[in-house]
Each structure stands twice: as structure tokens, then as C-alpha cells.
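LOG
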Amino acid sequence: MLKSSSIFTSLVTSGLMALPLQAFSDEAQQSNLKATDHAPIGVMGDHLHKKGEFMFSYRFMQMSMSGNLQGSDSISDDDIVTSVTAPNSSMNYVRVVPQTMTQNMHMLGFMYAPTDQVTLMAMVNYIDNDMTLTTYSGASGTTVLDNFSTASSGLGDTKLTMLYSLIDAPEHKFHVNLGWVLPTGSIEETDQVLTPMNMLTNLRLPYSMQLGGGSHRAEFGLTYNGYNDNLSWGAQGLYNLALSENDEDYETGKTLKLSTWANYGFSDAVSATARLTYNKTQEIVGEDENLTAPVTTANPANYGGTLLMAAIGINTVIANKHRVAFEYEIPVIQDVNGVQMEMDNMFTIGYQLAF
């Protein structure tokens, strides 16, 4: 799946770069829609529609991680297995260390505006998770046993959102985001793992490899957009929290996400975007008693922290209906709770059709 998704992304991106900008410009000038009318493709719920309008969207997002951090500092595998405890395991210290993780997410979105002031949105996700890990031999020491990999895939959680306009002027728009996350993603995924005793056994995968949070969540926030000739800018703040524990007696951490962006138009049809995103996430509350492996990702305290991401992207508009956009993000600041994998990068490519 990773190989095919990467090929697909490369083909789409190459095709975009090969299209003449003048062709984009000629088609966009037939309408009032401009590339700067939208936020970067990684921002969800950034705009409303006029009464009776529909919009369909598809996004492909890939997140890559490698290595490990303790707080904001790198920590070696040998240091992890000799100093980091595994409180949910029968062993004193961590004996299995994550090396790399890739998450591919396919997102289908639907928007409809029953009135000029209200737009309804639904987002359905399909997730592929892949992780490679190293197992150390026995209950102590720094002797490497072998490497292995785990995977999970399936439907993720589903989000329903209402956008309510507070200000709708030509140069300034301001709206409320009210969301409800449905626990449609599995939290009982398993796979074969290599134990420190050199046995292959099927175990419950850690929290980061599950497909959902397992409980209903509420999300609310505010979004602002400003426009001036060939420039637009905006900001969004979202707060997301679980409404209860899930069936495995834990809840994923509360999250505050703040984004701010700028969008410069080279023409009505092509623009470049820049964005900063701040994420503050709390650790997991409670624990899944089925997670007993001596690995960092099985400890609820090793989740959450602070992450600041910087992104650049491209927006294009074709024939007043079609938008194709791309965004690439890298971390600027990472400060994690406990010991966690380090974020490398994230990219999103998307298509939107309004009608």
C-alpha cells in the first residue's frame, strides 16, 4: 500500500507541475473562484458554502516517524532498554524499541450548505499503519535479538461537523466549528510480535497502531479568513476531547490545535501557501489491560506533548469546480511526554469538486 500510494502521489504531483500555468489561469478567469479563496489543503473546515452547494473531497495524507525522543532530546535504543521502565509489563525495562512508523490516511469528505449561514461536513477515513521494531534479548542487557514489523489497516473514526457563519464580508469571514467524532475505528487490532524470549506471538497492538480512539469525542473551535487582492490569510483554533472512556477503559488525550496561514496568488488559479501549526496533546487517561508488551508505545504515559509544524504548499483551481492542492510539513519543535517516536515529516495531497 505504501509503495502504490507513493507512486500515485508522485504521478499526481508530476502532472500538476507539468500543466501550463496559463491554462490554469485562462480557466480560472472564467469565474470568481480563486486559488487564494482556500486555506492550505491540510486545514479542515476552513470555509462555508452558499445555500444548496455541495462539495466532495479526497485527501491522501502520509506521516513518517523514525528514532525516539525523551522530552525534546534524542535517546538511543540502548539507553531506552536500560533506563526506561515498562510498568504495564512483567519486565522491569523496555525490551522492544520502535524504529520507524508510517501512517497513510485516505480521507473522503462531503460538504452541503442547507443555508448561507450553515454548512454541514462529514469526513470518513481509511488508515494504514506500519511499524518496524527491534527486540532485545532477555530481561536485561543490550543484546539485539532481531527486527520485526507490525501493521494495521481499516476504517478510522468518522467526523461530523457543522460550520456556522458569524461574519461573511468580502474581506473578512469568521465562523464556528462544531464537531462530533464517531468511534468507527477499531481499538482491538492485533499482530504477531517477537518477544524478548525469541517467540512469535499474536498480541494486542499498542495505542498508536489502533485505528480509532474508541469513544465519542467533541470538537469545537473558531476559524477566521481574510482576503486582499492576491493575498489571503487565516487562523483556526480547535479543541478536541473524549466524552467518556472507551470499552477498554481508557480515553485518548485532550488536544488543542492552533493553525495560522498565508496564501499568495501568482494568478487566480495558482497560489503558494505557508502555515504554522501548534499541537498540544495530553497523555492517555486510563489503560488497556490487554497491552502488556515491554514496548514504549504500550505505556499511556508515553503519549501527548507539544509539536510545532511548519508547512509549505500549492493550491490550484480549474474551471471553477476543481481544486488540486499539496502541502508538505516538517517539525520545528517537538517536546514529548515520556519516550516517543520522532516525527520526520507529513504531506497531504487533495482534490475537491464543488457543485
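LOG (cont.) second protein
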Amino acid sequence: MHKTSATLLIIDDDDVVRASLADYLEDSGFKVLQAGNGLQGLEIVRQDCPDLLICDLRMPQIDGLELIRRINDMGIEMPVIVVSGAGVMNDAVEALRLGAADYLIKPLEDLAMLEHSVRRALDRVRLRGENQRYREKLEAANRELQTSLHLLQEDQNAGRQVQMNMLPMTPWQDGDLEFSHQIIPSLYLSGDFVDYFRIDERRIGFYLADVSGHGASSAFVTVLLKFMTTRLLYEWRRNGSLPEFKPSDVLGHINRGLINCKLGKHVTMLGGVIDEQNGELTYSIGGHLPLPVLFENGQARYLEGRGLPVGLFDEAQYSNYQMPLPEAFSLTLLSDGVFDLLPGDSLKEKEQELPRLVIRAGGTLDGLRQVLGLANLGEMPDDIAVLVLNRNLP
């Protein structure tokens, strides 16, 4: 026999009918309460809060329809099954309109039909209750999510402000050299970073870095990069004399620092030092693409070089490349997010196109903004960083 903890209330002024229904439903495992009229039934509803009501339509004092109305007015959500011998269609329609779960006609030749109706109505109530609890949990989760998103937005705003404050002024003029940059984050915080600074009276350093991943964790590494390069320069100055400050040494220093921090992040980098006395550029590459593009006399070409990403391999070694700087030139450094803007189906085709775009841009950042449409970009799949240094360009 199927057991249930549901409590049913049967209201019928016919004692024989009421007793037979009650006996059958009790044998089916239900707890059954009985009332001989509507007013008595309402009192039981108030006191005992049964799970389901079975009532007749034609009863003294108040009929079944009025009984349903009063239960509705009390704000009690209870399934009601009408079992009536009246057989009037208007009554059945009105009972269902008022919210009755079912309407059965007396005499019930098979009481299993009533039991089936009861269980179906109780199942619907159970499902509605589960759905309501699910909606409440979902709404609570949405509220918590909105709160978390608001806090995340505040954190992102603060992080973005810190990151913006670390970036160098753009454009920056030092002697006949001009540096300018633009960073377009795919998320609110960028994993791309640029910096340029004077090392001493004759040398200027610069780099472009692209941290793996996106968001706050990648942006944190840009803060770490700024700290490590600044601290390294400070320590060397404090010792009274600056060494050669080779870019390969700086990349090696950052490589060891990132590995020791165990952040699970690596960086691709381009770092360079310009010696203004001898007009020479020394640069080093840490797994970065695209390579720097040199613009001179209306022509553009990639600089040579290669190297392992920074922060992945303990044994990584970085090489220095040297070249004399032309009297008038620009050098364009970009993060690999720019490949999403370039025409071509393959990486090789995109790499071939980049020097042509630099020529169309005249080797300037403003020209690249127009050629690449940087001012009108929507959400991009990757960060884009551009750093351009030039001398004596018209």
C-alpha cells in the first residue's frame, strides 16, 4: 500500500458518502478529516491546514462554490477537488475558474478515480512548491551574483586606476626621441603593458609585455613587472654605478622572478635600450610576436631576433641584438592581439601585411589608429598594445 503523510479534508452533508470516501482514502494511506457542512469545514481548514480539500457543491449554510471563494479570500493555497451529483455544467466551469483542481461526478463507481485525482493534485502542489523554492533560490543567487559583480566592478575600477597610474605619459619627448602608446583591453583590466624611462644621462629603456591570460590576475603581473624593473634600476643606481643594463639581463631577472613567485603566469616581452651617445639600439626578445617593425625612408621591415617566453623555463637564456638607429625612423612594437585586426587567413599572411600597414600609417601611432581603426573597436578577443618610438619623422 502506498503510504503518504498528506492530510485530506472531506466536506459533504451526506454522512454515508462522506464515510465511504474517507474509509477508502484512509485505506490508501491518507490521513482524513471530515466535516458535515461548509462552516465546519472552514473551521477545520483554519485550525488543521489540511493538504487537500474534497467537497460537495450542494451543501447547507454555504455551498461548495462559496466555500472555495472563502478559502481563496483567506489566502490559503490548497487544491480542491469537487465531487458533486449536481451535474450542472455552469457549476463545473465556475468551480474550475475559482481554482478547483478537478471536478468529479457522483456517484463515483470507481473510487480509484478519486484517489488518482487526489494524488495528481498533490503532485502538482509538490511540483509548484519545488518550483517556487527553486525560483527563490535562483533569485537569491542572482542577488548574490549582482552583489559580487558590483564588488568585482569596484575592484576592477580600482585595479584599472592603479594600472593607468603605472603607465608612462603619452606622448613623451626626450631629446629628439618621442615615445607614444595605446592599450586597448579586451576585458576591463589588461594583461598588456608598456613602459619607457630614462636610465641615465645617455640611455633610455623601454619594453612592451603581453601577460598570458586576461583580467585581474594578468593585470597583477603587469604591476609585478613594473615593480621588478623599477627595483632593478634602483638597486643598480644605489650601488653607485650602472652596469651595461643589457635587455637580456633584465629579461633573465624577470624570468627568475616570475618563476619564483609561482603565479602560473608567463609573459612575452620586447625590451630595448637606446644609447644616445653612439646612436645604437640594443634589444632582446622573450618569445614575442610580432617582432618590432622598423620604418625608415618610406619602407618598413621586421627586426630580427628570437627567444623563449619569460617566466616558463628556469634555463631560459636571452640574447642581445644591436643595430645603429637611422637619423629619421620609427619603431613599432605591438602585442599579438593586433593579429585579430589584420587581413589574411594564416599567421604568415597577417605577418606579411603588418609592415605594409605601418607604411600606410607613416610609421606613427596616429596613423596606425586610423589604419587599424583603433578608435572604433568593439570588444576584442585579446588585448592590444601599441608602442611607437620615433625620431625626426615629419
